[in-house]
Design brief:
With about 525 residues, this protein is an alpha/beta fold. The chain is built from 15 helices and 25 strands.
Length: about 525
């Protein structure tokens, strides 16, 4: 029987049986092979480029969309190339590499008091409705903290008897094959029969595949965080309401589901806890950031900025808190930027301009393949300092482009800068709006916590110089993976989980575009690079 093979991937080496009239992308999805598809498979983004090493004759002819992307010989768009004849096909994915995923977190400073404990020779879950015997004691009790990000997934196995992290695993979210942002995945779930289940299965199988075989049956509870879309999909909750006005999740409160019912292959009696959502697209990941930073215990106002594919901002203290979210990080994580790539080996991670030429470093010291988020921040700041672009982001030379590595085709264009400027404007506007709503200034903020991988690796001076962050030297605290830290704390501490559930009702989620009548004017005015304070 003819098969489609993806030799770069462990799960793709044995291939999948050919399904006539299905695309290469659809075959990859059936295997769980990760192919980036920013546009969700419509042939627009050009991210799903693959090289057909064998079996090209069994594919449909090049489409108009493919011709527009100037593919090299043997290359196709996975979403456009359909299998029309039975034959073995060998496929290599162009955008693949070892991801540099942030798994480091803030140190836990909480008393160990998990929901799952040993009582004599029994393992007992102390749930909200009373105690439940889960198993006989078999030498260990473990828990699982999972941060389901739009781009990456990170989980930790934690010893619930001692509190130590036993293992940390990080990988690219396989849902990237369905679209790089939450809107693409919401659309896929809405307009494809069985789409929601397909997206849920993709991430669950990826977690299941990477769980420690020797410990999985001793994992008796899991805590899952993620933005509103990611948490909903993980639990199979309809995401349609997140794609239409007023863009609110169907289920906002916390969830408790048996692992056997969900399909998470840990102890079948284990409880899988989905932390609550704040509102709109501010989800359980933002709540976890708040728990880990403990700004809800601070007398002075603080701010959290989580710069990811879905950006979130929180301003508050022990008395009150405000949150907002925006599509901030897609451009800075490589989406919508012609030379952009994720944080993979070979990605340019830092840039300086010396004598008009770019000097750069790559992840892993590998030959450059594109520029990741931290490199894009550096590049924008350096182009602004050197007068290559002005504060409006316009190139000052007629070429309207800057070559980072001309020989390898790594070039930033005017359209790229425009996309980065749009993302920067939205993120800074949310920060300004929430500070004004709270009634504070940059000077009055006690600390600014930067959460997430992107924020952890950026040069904060350059981020301030272009205005992605306010000018607040000495106040920035890099949290690392705050969402994972918060998830772990909710796993090992009943008090932390109780506090998280109480916080949901105290945080006011705001939508600046709806609440500020001058939002559009401010957004347009904010379309400029440069430092700022309020």
């Amino acid at each position: 029987m003819a098969r489609v093979f993806f030799p770069q991937f462990k799960r793709g080496k044995d291939g999948v049986e050919v399904a006539l009239n299905s695309t290469i992308l659809e075959h990859a999805r059936r295997l769980g092979v990760e192919i980036s598809s920013e546009c969700g498979g419509r042939g627009i983004c050009g991210r799903c480029v693959v090289r057909i090493a064998r079996g090209a004759e069994a594919l449909s002819p090049l489409t108009e969309a493919e011709r527009e992307h100037g593919l090299s010989g043997g290359e196709r768009l996975a979403c456009q190339a359909r299998v029309v004849k039975p034959a073995d096909i060998i496929v290599y994915v162009r955008e693949v590499g070892k991801l540099s995923i942030l798994s480091e977190t803030m140190e836990d400073r909480v008393r160990l008091d998990p929901f799952v404990v040993r009582r004599g020779e029994e393992v007992v879950w102390r749930g909200p409705c009373g105690e439940e015997v889960l198993d006989r004691y078999r030498g260990g009790i473990y828990g699982l903290a999972i941060d389901v990000g739009t781009t990456t997934v990170v989980f930790q196995i934690v010893d619930l008897e001692g509190g130590e992290v036993v293992e940390t695993v990080a990988f690219k979210n396989p849902q990237a094959a369905y679209g790089d942002d939450v809107i693409s995945r919401i659309s896929y779930a809405m307009y494809n029969e069985g789409g929601l289940r397909e997206l849920q299965r993709a991430v669950l199988e990826a977690v299941n595949e990477r769980l420690n075989e020797g410990l999985r049956d001793l994992i008796y509870e899991a805590v899952v965080v993620g933005n509103s879309t990611m948490r909903s999909i993980f639990f199979g909750v309809d995401v349609t309401t997140l794609g239409v006005l007023p863009f609110e999740p169907l289920i906002k409160g916390p969830l408790n589901v048996k692992a056997s019912k969900l399909g998470l292959r840990v102890n079948p009696n284990a409880n899988v806890y989905g932390a609550g959502l704040i509102g709109g697209h501010a989800g359980a990941d933002a709540l976890a950031d708040i728990i880990a930073s403990e700004i809800y215990k601070s007398d002075k106002p603080c701010m959290i900025v989580d710069i990811g594919t879905n950006g979130e901002v929180i301003v508050g203290n022990r008395d009150r808190m405000f949150s907002a979210s925006c599509a901030a990080g897609g451009a800075y994580e490589g989406a919508a930027v012609s030379c952009g790539v994720g944080a993979v080996e070979g990605a340019i991670k830092s840039v300086r301009i010396v004598g008009g030429r770019a000097v750069y470093e790559t992840i892993g010291g590998k030959p450059p393949i594109g520029i990741c988020g931290s490199g894009l921040i550096d590049l924008l700041a350096e182009m602004l300092r050197n007068g290559i672009i002005d504060e409006r982001g316009r190139f000052t030379s007629p070429e309207r482009r800057f070559a980072v590595d001309e020989g390898r085709g790594i070039v930033i264009t005017q359209e790229d800068v425009n996309q980065l400027l749009l993302a920067r404007s939205g993120m800074s506007l949310d920060q300004r709006f929430l500070m004004k709503l709270f009634g504070t200034t940059v000077d009055e903020l006690d600390r600014i916590f930067i959460a997430g991988a992107f924020g952890n690796y950026i040069d904060e001076e350059n981020a301030m110089f272009i205005g992605l962050l306010p000018e607040a030297r000495g106040k920035v605290v890099k949290m690392g993976n705050g969402a994972l830290a918060g998830a772990r704390q909710m796993l090992i501490s009943r008090e932390k989980r109780r506090e998280a559930e109480e916080l949901i009702g105290r945080i006011r989620h705001v939508k600046p575009n709806e609440e500020d009548p001058e939002f559009f004017d401010k957004f347009v005015e904010g379309l400029r690079f440069g430092s700022w304070r309020v």
